[in-house]
Amino acid sequence: MLALILVAMMSAVLFGSLSMAARTWDRGEDKASRTTEMRLTEEFLRRTLGNAYPPRDLNNLDGPASFQGAEDWIAFPALLPDRLGGELLYFKLGLAGGGPNSRLVLARANPPSSANEPLSFDDDEVKVLAEGISSLRIRYFGNDVLAGPEITEPTWRPQWSEKQQWPMLVQLDFTPREGPAWPPLIVELKFASRTMCDEIARAHNMCNQN
Questions:
Q1: pLDDT at position 173, please?
Q2: Euclidean distance between the first and the last CA atom of the chain, given in angstroms as a whole number
Q3: What is residue 202's predicted lDDT score, i.e. its pLDDT?
Q4: How many domains does the chain have?
Q5: According to DSSP H, which parts of 51-119 are helical?
């Protein structure tokens, strides 16, 4: 009887230890998977958004905006890597779905055939970057001429309204549905300097669009 009791107690302890180890392993696997997804997503966005490239016709304000930035989405043209053809495409980053089905998606569109043709983001050209992203917050650093003449130094702002002049930096904050928030992702727009132009030069159409 005593031996049976000892065996039962040892089995219970062993089962509890194995169950705890299994739960710890599963949590570790989930954390590693989320970390890998986070790093791959941030690396992809840093490369894609960093290659945002201003089109030549920035002065056509009636055409599709070359850069649009809101607090929870961003649209921009960018160059594909040379190994993928190096062509200029338009992208739009934002959240899709809601609740437990929320996800971070990147839509892609070909450049319009004419200056006045609106952009059309096809549903077939949507890439899911990350699942379970409950919120996306975007901020922009630069000197927005439309923000007012009293603002002369670059500042952070929750949206970008200037179509001709681009921000220098973009910060993206992701909050996943589970786990801690991702570290802020700050991306430098390498080609934003091509859009820098003062108001006098712009009024005389002297901005460099090469």
A1: 95
A2: 91
A3: 47
A4: 1
A5: none
* Alpha-carbon distance values, 60 to 2, 57, 117, 157 (Å): 90, 6, 12, 24
135 located within any domain = yes
* Whether the Cβ atoms of residue 103 and residue 41 lie closer than 8 Å to each other: no
Sheet containing strand 169-176, edge to edge, reads 155-157, 133-142, 169-176, 185-188
* pLDDT score recorded for residue 20: 67
Q: pTM for the whole thing?
A: 0.71
pLDDT beneath 70: ranges in the chain:
12-13, 15-34, 56-65, 82-85, 100, 114-118, 122-124, 144-152, 196-210
Distance CA 92, CA 74 (A): 6
Whether residue 80 is contained in a domain is answered as yes
Count CA atoms within 13 Å of residue 165 on its CB side: 17
d(CA 104, CA 92): 11
CA distance 76 to 48: 10
52 near 166, Cβ under 8 Å? yes
In a domain, 157, yes or no: yes
CA distance 184 to 37: 15
Strand-by-strand arrangement of the 68-69 sheet = 68-69, 74-79, 88-96, 103-109, 126-131
Please check whether residue 133 lies inside any domain of the structure. Answer: yes
Radius of gyration of the chain (CA): 24
For 199, the domain range is: 52-203
